[in-house]
């Protein structure tokens, strides 16, 4: 059943809309009254809305609703009087079906294709697979609450994505990893020293420390079980629980009420903030001027990064040229020293040869003198022998 188009503002003001989401570049709104689900859509360019389809016997409302779009299926998880109710809305077939009901539920969230929920009585954390329709106990919340939270040893903040040092097992947050890195442009590497034990690791440029998945899961679960996670996602007008992707933020109301942020659901943003819609921020409500500003900012950032890259490449080229010039100068000096050593070696060899020849000549003269002395000695001895024989 489809009706003719009506204005988006009148659609929101007259319907019990409890959730909004984006699908195929259109804004969809879910409304439910007297167990009848109604799905409205708007292209936002003409600010007109129409009823896409409706279905009887669907018990949904605005209380504590979470939605996730996977392919053409919109999954809705909702807590009503401590009961978890899950629906699957097929956007192609335009029909909704209830897929799961769970009692005694406190908090809910989506993680990939699973609904994560906490059970109050047993203080356990469970997951329900939206496609396999199976429920699994994840952990005991009491043990998790007693375990310490991870804080980055550098900035002392809770890290959502901890990075681990493989050399020692200590972890830091991803933001401090960039601050800690010491870059070597010539070697194209970066060195990171663990802030706790000072052990170092050298990584190629562009490569980061691996994620500590065990600690990341622990931090995510501890964040999920803490109440502060859900307080920041409540619509301040109708108190509906919102996904971060579907939340709107009104800068005007935040300034008027002197608060850091003013969170709204899509229905309340359209219905109650039309007079200052230019202050309401969300991906589907960004004005053309804001888009131009963001585009200009992106282009400026890109130009700045390009200039920084050009400067870095120029500096790297100068460093490489200086290195090669210095190396060439050193090689010339080494070759000069080698030639000098060869010359000195040749001179020394000639001197040694001359000295050796001189000594050889002296030895020859000594041999000649010895031979003459031996001959003279023999002559003298022969003379003495003749004298002795004559005397006798």
Residue share in helix: 25-40%
Overall spatial form: rod-shaped
Class of the domain at 8-142, according to the CATH hierarchy? Mainly Beta
H-E order: EHEEEEEEEEEEEEHEEHEEEHHEHEHEH
Number of H/I helices: 8
Structural class by sheet pairing and helices: alpha+beta
Superfamily (CATH H level) name of the domain at 8-142: YVTN repeat-like/Quinoprotein amine dehydrogenase
Q: CA-to-CA gap between the ends?
A: 170 Å
Strand content: 25-35%
> Mind summarizing the main beta sheet?
5 strands, antiparallel
Number of strands: 21
Residue windows where pLDDT falls under 50 for at least 5 positions: 227-232, 283-292
Strand order of the largest sheet: 1-5-4-3-2
Assembly level: single chain
Average pLDDT number: 75
Q: How much is the radius of gyration in Å?
A: 45 Å
At the fold tier of CATH, the topology name of the domain at 8-142 is Methylamine Dehydrogenase, Chain H
CATH architecture of the domain at 8-142: 7 Propeller
Walk me through the structure.
- This protein has 392 residues and is an alpha+beta fold.
- Among the domains are: 8-142, Methylamine Dehydrogenase, Chain H; 162-223, no CATH class; 290-344 and 351-372.
- It is 39% helix and 29% strand.
- The protein has eight helices and 21 strands.
- A five-stranded antiparallel beta sheet has the order 1-5-4-3-2. It has a four-stranded antiparallel beta sheet with strand order 6-7-8-9, with no helix packed on it.
- Residues 227-232 and 283-292 have low confidence and may be disordered.
- GO terms for molecular function: zinc ion binding.
- Keywords: Metal-binding, Zinc, Zinc-finger.
- It comes from Steinernema carpocapsae (Entomopathogenic nematode).
- Residues 152-198 form the RING-type domain.
């Amino acid at each position: 059943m489809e009706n003719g188009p009506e204005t988006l503002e009148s659609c929101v003001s007259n319907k019990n809309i409890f959730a909004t989401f984006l699908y195929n570049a259109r804004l969809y709104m879910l409304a439910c009254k007297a167990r009848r689900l109604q799905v409205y859509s708007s292209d936002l360019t003409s600010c007109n809305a129409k009823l896409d389809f409706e279905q009887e016997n669907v018990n949904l409302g605005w209380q504590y609703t979470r939605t996730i779009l996977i392919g053409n299926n919109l999954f809705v998880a909702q807590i009503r009087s401590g009961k978890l109710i899950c629906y699957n809305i097929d956007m192609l077939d335009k029909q909704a079906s209830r897929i799961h009901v769970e009692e005694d539920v406190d908090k809910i969230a989506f993680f990939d294709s699973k609904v994560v929920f906490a059970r109050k009585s047993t203080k356990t954390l469970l997951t329900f697979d939206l496609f396999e329709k199976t429920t699994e106990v994840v952990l005991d919340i009491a043990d998790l609450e007693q375990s310490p939270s991870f804080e980055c040893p550098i900035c002392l903040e809770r890290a959502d994505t901890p990075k681990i040092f493989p050399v020692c097992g200590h972890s830091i947050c991803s933001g401090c990893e960039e601050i800690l890195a010491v870059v070597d442009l010539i070697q194209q590497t970066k060195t990171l020293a663990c802030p706790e034990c000072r052990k170092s690791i050298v990584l190629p440029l562009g490569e980061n420390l691996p994620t500590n998945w065990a600690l990341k899961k622990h931090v995510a679960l501890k964040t999920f079980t803490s109440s502060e996670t859900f307080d920041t996602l409540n619509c301040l007008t109708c108190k509906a629980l919102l996904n971060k992707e579907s939340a709107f933020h009104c800068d005007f109301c935040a300034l008027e009420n002197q608060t850091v942020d003013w969170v709204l659901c899509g229905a309340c943003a359209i219905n109650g903030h039309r007079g200052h819609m230019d202050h309401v921020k969300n991906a589907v409500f960004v004005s053309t001027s804001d888009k131009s500003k963001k585009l200009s900012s992106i282009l400026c950032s890109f130009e700045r990064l390009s200039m920084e890259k050009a400067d870095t490449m120029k500096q790297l080229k100068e460093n490489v040229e200086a290195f090669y010039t210095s190396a060439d100068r050193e090689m010339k000096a080494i070759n000069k020293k080698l030639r000098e050593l060869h010359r000195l070696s040749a001179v020394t060899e000639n001197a040694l040869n001359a000295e050796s020849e001189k000594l050889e000549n002296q030895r020859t003269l000594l041999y000649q003198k010895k031979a003459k002395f031996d001959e003279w000695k023999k002559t003298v001895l022969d003379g003495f022998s003749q004298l002795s024989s004559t005397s006798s």
